[in-house]
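Below sits my pick:
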Amino acid sequence: MCNVVSVTAKPLCKDDFLQKIQKISDSDTQYIILREKYLSEQEYFKIHLPFGAFKDLKGRENFDLLGTSVHSTEDAIFAEENGADYITAGNIFETDCKKGLKGKGVNFLRNVCDSVNIPVYAIGGINADTAKELKSVNRKNFAGVCVMSLLMQSENINDEVMKIKRELG
């Protein structure tokens, strides 16, 4: 079964942010990626890295698990060759978080999965409906999906997570 990873975005959260995080951590999500762009570089550097920060990383001794976001197969290969434990690849579908940017699609995700041997998580516009399209990815290192807006705004977080998991198979 594929996993669901929550990605935070405090500005999208209509409720108390820490209570939302608690609900997410109580749900059936695998991980929570803190993606708060208002954090300082020092604060943010302790968490999931944007690709630019990952490329500038001089060592990974402070990280137990190191992941980064990629937007091309070249980025994915670079990330793996330079020590990433996992990657998020996107945006797969259109999303309000990247208005006007067309989704890269399922074939892009397949190509990324085929270019690396580390876990790959799809990100961008993921919900139960779009998750159906990801069943066809069928790659050994397709690890699951990352969901941001849906979980930040949902009242029934675990219901949404379970719907996505059912669609992924």
Remarks:
- The chain has a mean pLDDT of 89.
